Amino acid sequence: MIIGLLTAVAASACYGTGSVLQAVGSRKSARQEAAKASTTGVTQHGGPSLSSTAKAAVTWEFMVGTVLDFIGFGLGALAARLLPLFLSQTVISANLVITAVLSIKLLGIRLRRAEWGSITVVCAALVLLATAAGPEGSGHTPIATHWWLLAASVVLIGGGTLIVRLLGGRAAILAGLLSGLGFGALGVGVRVLNGADPFHLPTLLADPALYAILVAGLGGMYLHTVALQIGSVNGATAALVVGETVVPGILGVVWLGDASRPGFAWVAVLGFVVAVAGAVAVAWFGEPEPSEEAGTGKEPGADAQPGADSEHAGAGTAARTDTAAGTEADPGPSPAGPSAHSLAASPKR
Q1: CB-based burial of residue 199 (10 Å sphere; 0-12 exposed, 13-18 middle, 19+ buried)?
Q2: b/e code 310-333 from CB counts within 10 Å (16+ = b)
Q3: Which pTM was predicted?
Q4: Local confidence band at 331 (pLDDT 50, 70, 90 cut-offs)
Q5: Which of 206, 233, 296, 298 lies most in the core, judged by the most C-beta atoms within 10 Å?
Q6: Could you tell me if 126 and 271 are in contact, meaning their C-beta atoms sit under 8 angstroms apart?
Q7: What is the C-alpha separation between 327 and 219, in angstroms, rounded?
């Protein structure tokens, strides 16, 4: 149990740090696209194109964040084998707490009282969960369920990606929810994977759950990147937390035999609900106030670009992309798009 908890915390730390770097890389790429008034950075529906997402992925910040994601993935997979899913997935989803705290130093963000309160609630709930968690289930399931998991992952990621591209700039919350469900499917796949313990390569390669893990993991990363590029990520982050914790937590109990300690079921339920609610609150309260950085549209420490506002206001495509970059797309009275403060609410699985 202790080793599993330490592994989950380490995975959460990797994901949380990677989120800050990936968010910075995504917004840097979007600002560059906006500065060029590029028409290839968005689809006809206003969402980020595959090319713009690829450009975000080759910034050095995004690449370092991705390396941390892979490390976090390995640690998270191990934690899913050592802990009940309702505990491992919840601890990993708390990476947005780490993101928020790191953003104070790395992004010059000042957390407000509501955010500190939410962080405290999450930490207290995780203590309740760790206290109440019992042994993880066996994870032994019929091979047919592995095929169902693969089919569900393909439909979720493939269909979800198509819908997100059609909805464009309105799809931030949906992209966050779908990426969370993808990461949740990944956790379930890791638990039921055959040929991992003891290791047997032919059995591993023949298990559909392995390919469900790849589809759900890679698709979840792509959809998370899209969510970071579209407007404010706070609502998307809240949806991601729900998707990656609630569904796998329920499946772990109902399908895989995860359980709490005898007499501690109510503590586990309370800790789970409070932890998810606190994580959502951390994301939600990360929304900047209208007065924060309004009209600046720049990251902390960034120099203003003369004439940038008029250029962005004059190009519809650039305005949409610029909103994803956290800059002001409309010179009117409405508040600026998401500031760097909202980066504290962008987690990773």
Answers
A1: exposed
A2: ebbbebebbbbbbbbbbbbbeeee
A3: 0.67
A4: very low
A5: 233
A6: yes
A7: 28
